[in-house]
Specification:
Layout: H1 4-24, H2 27-46, H3 51-70, H4 83-88, H5 91-108
Helix pairs in contact: 1-2, 1-3
């Protein structure tokens, strides 16, 4: 688990993420983002996470917040996943990614996809 100082930094990062969602994302995407961030932070707090994993976790979420605050444009979302990462996905993971992209597109354009997207809660790994 993270030290007290690391915990304070991660708590501040979590609040920063929620603040960015509140300022930058429309309602349905905000709810999706808030629940995803909450679950990710909760999972990492409960897991036996090493110091280097915590650092990577914090760096990735910090990059996400920077992206939201600097370059997030919901009408021109980035669908570019590095080719090597995409190639490493199995068929089920690619299908789930496609469904997730469809659900995000529906939410971003005012559609209602709750229950329609067919997403499951199984981890990709």
């Amino acid at each position: 688990m993270a030290s007290a100082g690391s915990f304070r930094q991660l708590s501040a990062l979590y609040r920063h993420i929620l603040r960015a969602h509140r300022k930058k994302l429309p309602g349905p995407l905000r709810a999706l983002g808030d629940s995803y961030a909450s679950e990710e932070f909760r999972r990492h707090l409960k897991a036996k996470t090493t110091r280097s994993q915590w650092q990577e976790f914090g760096q990735q979420w910090s990059s996400y917040v920077s992206m939201l605050n600097g370059t997030a444009d919901l009408d021109q979302h980035s669908s570019s996943m590095p080719e090597d990462i995409h190639a490493a996905l199995n068929a089920e993971q690619r299908e789930q990614l496609s469904k997730l992209q469809q659900a995000v597109d529906e939410l971003a354009h005012g559609g209602h996809s709750e229950g329609e997207g067919g997403l499951d809660n199984r981890p990709l790994g």
